[in-house]
Queue: 3 jobs
Job 1
Amino acid sequence: MTTNTETLFSDASTAIPVLEMQGISKQFHGVPALQNVNLSIYGGEVHALMGENGAGKSTLMKILAGAYIADGGEIRINGQPLKITNPAIARQAGINLIYQELNVAPNLTVTENIFMGSELQRGQFLDRQGMEAEAKQVLASLGATFKASDIVGTLSIAEQQQVEIARALKDKSRVLVMDEPTAALSDRETERLFEVIRKLRRDGIAIIYISHRMEEIYALADRVSVLRDGQYIGSLLREEISPQRLVQMMVGRSMQDFYEHQRQLHPSSVVLEVRNIGDGRKVDGVSFELRAGEILGLAGLVGAGRTEVSRLIFGADPKVSGEILLNGKKVEINSPSDAINAGIGYVPEDRKDQGLFLEMSCRKNIALNTLKREAKGGIVNWGAVNQLAKGAVENFNIRLANLELRALDLSGGNQQKLLLARWLAIKPQILMLDEPTRGVDIGAKSEIYKIISELAAQGVAILMVSSELPEIVGMSDRVLVMREGRLVGELDDSPEQKITQENIMQYATGAAEVQAV
């Protein structure tokens, strides 16, 4: 089936969608999660579903997959009404949902995973030969490089994802829902997944693709539909998609209002001075100043040494050269405890592995850095801790049912705000942010930008590492650019050194040095 959007939708009045969801509504404990949502998907189409966390995307898809039952509305498959009251009915209708957290049995073979719950039988015995032959055929159609006899636990995350796709194809899937499928994949694995998705589209399968990553939407989507606050906002054809329109639809305001920060042209006194620091490996002789109330962007390509600089300042890694001055006085920072005591906070790049304690409650995560302060005679004042946590949840608009909820159970954006709340509880004079909006949706990004701007307005000195150039350009008062472990450029938004994506990349790639020769 053709995937040309002009052909696909030129005669929409006569084409019958493979899937229609009409007037879908759902409440939880009297609170509306979906309100009269409409969605239509055609065969051979990659249809992106976007919206900030809490917009209703997951609820809508769980209704489609039979995990939830809608309070109202109708689902049609090829024009025929279908009442989906459990997952088995959805699968029989050719609807399969691949969750972000993969649903595989790691101790079983690929074949056993593909046929789990629908094993073939020959008389009273399992038809293992028949299942393996069919599994091989499905894997070959996907271009998989692993074997049907391999144990799934030995496969990479990307390969395990292919096992789930193979299971859906074995079930003769008409509609395949993929929820943030690239969250745990490398760039190479992501491109391989894209090849599989394009092949499935050519084979006529309708794919609903949930993602907050704009670049993936541009690469794959034939159409995009947007939900906001449980309501259907609208759909765009591929040629209509733009960052400006998507942001407007998702958050209800224009791209021009997205970045909250007003550039600070005359910042205050120097708070942090870094002189010639290095680690003997990835950082070589880095020096700079950071002022109170300033947002200093640290840019560069992957591997340039940006994260390593932050970790050296925070004492997470040992430095072999250089010194650090706070408010004009030299300080010895040899551990994160030294940094915290000096009023330096650090939000790391990987919030799950290096930032949050996922199995601990939100209350404890927020209060972790201040427990010593709240303890008298070795006994923690839990009343004060509770007040601190409640205030942080309100101030940062962290969406959770109660303070005892595990950090693991929050969305990416709420996890990031939880981590910010913990570091701001120490009232830092310097806050280092490494990829502060990585893995969060557009709505959460907007909220985090607002928090960062408010902190700068209060006089907090902020060092922000980011790989997203629009974020660096939109939020920074000044930008330092690194390449191969060294600082190679500074942009201060003067006429000669404007803060633009082009100027940042000139320094990051070495093109500025080539032009100067």
Job 2
Amino acid sequence: MSRSPLLINALKVDEPKRGRWARIALRASTACDATILYATMHDERTEPLSGHFYLRGSAIARLRYETYQVVLFIPDEAVEVRLFALGPQADAMRLGRLTFHSLSRAQASAHLILTSPRQALRRWRQGDWFRSSTARGRIRQFLGVLAFEAQIPRYNYATWLTLFDHWSAEDFSSQSTAPTIAYLVFSDEQASEALEATLQSLEAQWSGPAYAVVAPTTDCTLRHFVEEMTADYIGILQAGEVLPPHATRLAAEQLDYLDYPELAIVDEDKISADGVRHTPMFKPEPNHTMMLSGMLSRGLWLVQRSMLLREAPVSTKWAEVVRLTVWLARQRTGVRFFGRRIPFILTHRRSDTEAAPSTLLAELIEQHLQGGGPRIAPVATWPLTFQMREPRSEERITVIIPSTLRQPHSLSCIRAVLDGTDYPLFDIHVAVMQPRPLDAQQRANSKALERYPNVTVALLEAPHFNFSAANNRVAACTFGEYILLLNDDVVPIRRDWLRWLACFLQDPQTGIVGARLLYPDNRVQHGGVIMGLSGLCDHAHRYLPAAEPGYMFRAIIAQELSAVTAACMLVRRQVYMELGGLDERYPSAFNDVDFALRVGKAGYSVVYAPQAELHHHELQTYGSHYAGERQLYEAEEVQRMQKTWAERCAADPFHNPNFSLTYRSEWNLAFPPRISIDRKWHRSGT
């Protein structure tokens, strides 16, 4: 199976080589253009310490060998470097000499800059790698980003398919206990090329599944068709959605591995008239908020037969209507974790694939939202967009803004929040945490703010500033039903931003709602948080122009995520108090991510609501998270996060395992995907 990498060598890292840069070089025969060599680093527990470092080849055209090499930084905790080969002919490569040389920082810098001079210049000018307060830390981070970026494989989707999407019967167990699958194909026409293509793909399935066509002239109810089928699962397809021959076998194996979920969605791509596959749609785990947009309602769905009998509509010619109806009905019962994602491409979408009218989908979502959930109303676009609905009630919001209250910029930002917000019931509590009384500048700024009747400035005496403690202390002595954690360096773009956040928090299953934050130049600063990105966690869509929708529209549609930033985070007070607020062991960074993960673990949703937009003047008032005395916390906080949330960092359910976790490459293809396959299907995608 070409998805499985071949371990070709493991190098022990001696003490003198740790904490230094190194060059690893391997001489090997050229087996195939699509063969990839990469290195990973591991600690004494064999846990990986980083992403993949790809070895670049320097071939001599008339000779049958290449020298592959990579320059990387070896952290202190690394005890082993492993080399892997990946590709259809990886096992045919003849390996030659392997060398491992330590490098000085100057040598590593020269190599990386000479290898990718344009990237180096662009990164240095942008400074978007900057996260440390020390010159040494800044240089190390710059080189680390460059080391990753210089070696990211520039392969296209065709190469990815060659490596990771070729299947044979030998890839599946001959004694499988997997469930059986039959199919319902919905069509707007009695006969069409799109319908014929779908039926031909079903006939070509290795397992020979049963299927039926639901078309306009069909007299039978949908329930009748389902009753006639005896399979465990019913696959829902629209005319024009075609399956690869292995789809049924692979879907059945995955349903068995996932312990028979009530339903499962699959990844898909598009296919041209000449058979070229393109535009893959690698999906997150299905979630209620994103489902409301309709973005997850296309492609093959696998639904338990009993669930379909219980929840399906009486009749329709649209697969999307069936899928959404079943999902939303189950969601209304209060059950949250009934749907799963199968992270393999099992549907190809033709250009003539039929699609349900957006007006019909909007009517379906409107009917669902009348029964509860976020206070929004759908608009018939693709994907569906939303307008605010009048709230059932307006909860008072306590806004907490930790601040030094010294910088002129912080004063103007807080004033912009006060003057640029149309929510009627909010109070702002500015928390200044320091060991001494307010100085003259702070007193002047405090006096200017307290001219507003809904502003309070509180001095919280403490030896050191602790962002978590400041928020917790103010939250404990205030009474708003909702708590808004807000930085002192954000400015509203639209006056209704806080009403949008409150609309989504009206859903009782939601614990946190986060906003979309833009840099002053209108590029995205925060579009949600992806766990595992950049080694631990990072913002999605960073630097994407505000007008662009992002991958699968995910920069501009509301959805559930693992975490959002506390630069603007609306929390239900009950949830905040139930979980003890922010963890004060994170005085500077990661407190918001840790809190959001705990909220999700407690069973609540964490929602990213891009309709709420603010400008974020990042680090302009508070400064770097680890400047000055805060530098002492950096290593400790990173290690605590890595240990506490190791599983979520390895497998964020809202980030498909077929995507990269390399800095600023979160929507690029992963080489290889974070899915390894053997006889028992080991997954890291949920």
Job 3
Amino acid sequence: MVKFSNPVPLQKSILYFFLFTLVVFSVLSCSSQKDTFTNRLYHNTTARFNAYYYADAKIMELEDKIKEKYQEDYSQVLPVFYPIDSSTIEANEELLKEAREMASKAIDWHKISKWVDPSYFLIGKVDYYQGQFDEARNTFKYLNVNSKQDAVRHRSLIQLLRSFIDLDQFEDANFVIDYLSKEAGISRENKKFLYKTLAYYYEKRGEEDLIVPSIFKALEFSNDNAEISRMHFMLGQLYQKAGLDAFAYEYYQKALTGSPSYERTFFAQLYSQQVAELEKSKDLKRVRDYYDDLYEDNKNVDFRDVILFEKGRFEKKQGNLDDAIRLYSLAVKEPGENERQKGYIYQELADVFLHEKENFLKTKYYLDSALKGFKETDRNYAELASRKEIFDQYAKNYELLTRNDSLIRLSRLSPEEQEKYVSDFLEKEEERLILEAQAAEKKENTSIFENLLAFGGAGGSASSTFYWDNPTAIQRGALEFNRVWGSRPLTDNWRRSNRSFQADESTESSRPQLAELEETAEDSLASAQIATLPDKASLLSQIPNEPETREMMEAEMEEAYFNLGKLLYFDLKQAEKAIGYLEKLIQEYPDTPKKPEAYYTLYLASQELNTNPEKYAQLLNVEFPDSQFTKSINNPDQVSGSQANFESGENYKEAYGYFQNREYVTARNIVRETLNRYPLTKNTDRLLLLDIMISGKLESLDLYKERLQGYLQQARDEKLLAFAKDLLSAVSEEDEAAMETETDENDQEALAAQEQPIDPADAASESPYKENSGQTHIFILPMDQDLAESSGDLTAALEKFHAENFANERLRTGTIAISRETSILIISPFPNAERSLMYKETFLNSFNKDSLSEEIKNSSFVISIENFQQLNKRKDIAEYRSFYEKAY
């Protein structure tokens, strides 16, 4: 017998045999075509744990990033699915590219495996996330028809349903829902996804009462604790919104289980206490202590702005408005990463100062701050932006009026009196600043909401000897430095006396204005800082001692009084305040060319308040019998609104055609008949200017020039004004003989250069509007005053229409006055031009209401946020429509 000196152990023999068998198995199984047991086993295994696994992992990684990047807005009902942000998709294109490559390899390399159809599904999801909806839907439809795996078919149909809902294609969505309702054998995972998608369907349609049962069904099939917690929180919000506080409390409490994020935990506790006790409690001290305890808890440092805001809302409900404002003001000073929350706080402050305080200046600045907290895609952005434009105009005119009035009053003093006034003012200001610094020293920590010390023993006590702990010493030092060295910017080598001219110029522009320093109104949001004073010379230099400067400032004040009167009446609905400004205009500037329109606005405001409107009607008839405003008052049965705008526009085009053909008498007859029948429309200024041009052909040169000069004092449209100035300059140096021989040619040349402003049918060559199809858009429906007065019924009909067709958009409606005779109904927001145009098409085809004629419906248009701000400023719908017809 032959014996081996080193026999192989039995265990190693088995291992070698296994490895040999595996190698042979691998070689025999490499074919992707042979449908044998070993082939299927090999391809199923390698497809699942290689290509398909990695493709699925990449898509799950992207979905995790979508969750991470989305900032939940707990002040609104949470969305069923995390919204897909295009910037997140763009930043993770590589993930999708890799997912597509891996899924394609699973299909190409393992054709006989059972992971081919799931890989096709992943490719469909990649297309879906990349916004290639047609390709994605084709894939899902293919799988529904051809796949033998029910789980894949069902998941494809559910994903197809979600894509239809995304694009508001509800008829297609209804078909898929009906099809799925007849399917048997849907897996638990797919049922969960199906019921969440149904909840999304009702969310998009605005049918909140049907969201709840869909979420309940989804909960039955969910095993993910974090997902369950989020759905419970949504149920709590929906029940709270419906006024079912007991149910809301129950589901807010359930949302606390399942390891939710601390942010959701905080809001669940806060809202559960609100619905259970706070809103109904008569023990006000206990409620306030609850908010105080929340604020004091170090775990809630990141939510202190929310706590202060909610406590402010509670105080407002108790009628403690000043306490509410104080708490809101403290809330916005709290650090926090959630800019949207700051936006809500500023929006609340703006509403308080608008409706409760009627302080329009502060309303403007709070609206500015509120808009910074929101994105253009947020549903309240468009409404805030449109409101802000009105208050911007108010602030501009109010501040100009206040500043000029103060400075002109000072200019009436003698030089000695001016110098004494400025010296006294600086002395009082210095005393005030030191007293404020001393008050800051003595202020005690009476509330946990104010003056929390950053360091235990540090503080600004009166006995403090350390300079930087002593506010009074710091303030005195700053004032002394300012007295010795003047107002200097933070820069190197500040002691040098030979600083450059440019440096002096820059510091001059940063010096406080004298009139602004006189206005020491409280700013509840101003943080404590070291204040400095300007030097006497810089303040004296601001006083307008030259007659030309005073004359210019008086003209600015005249314009400001007029603008404020109109803004307050037409936009802010403050008839009494409007009367005050317009009467002041007439009292201070009795020869103002704006007097006819001022009388007309005073007539309307007095009519609204029932305070003798006939007084202004008589003044118009006596002083301006030929004014369009007088004609409007004397013809109360005139056609107005959209019909008047349309007909006057058509008549204008006809008259303009006769003018071009030199049939001046016919043109004038049409113009004057139109002005008599439709005294005030959007075309009035154009008709008046055309009438003046005709007078240049038929009447004396002096009358022509006089009428042009009067037109320049009254017209508002910038392009028409520019055109009128060109006409005036063309004849200002000519005599009557030259006028007769050359004016035809000159006018034709001027018309050729200025056709856009004088002819509304022409498109603007240099339009103030810009094309931006990717910007947030809004839908506009112009209305006359009669329709605007019944806009409540129209809004109700639109809300029903939106619930049926656009519930997912969360559309909002609002109405503002764009001119005396026209209001506009705003529907917003739409993420881009395409979505807004889709809405317009559906509106024209499907929305029906007796009070809304086809003509009015067809006058609707869409506009970007940026262009809307221009439109709201220029008040010229015809001008925008010329741009719209070309751009859209």
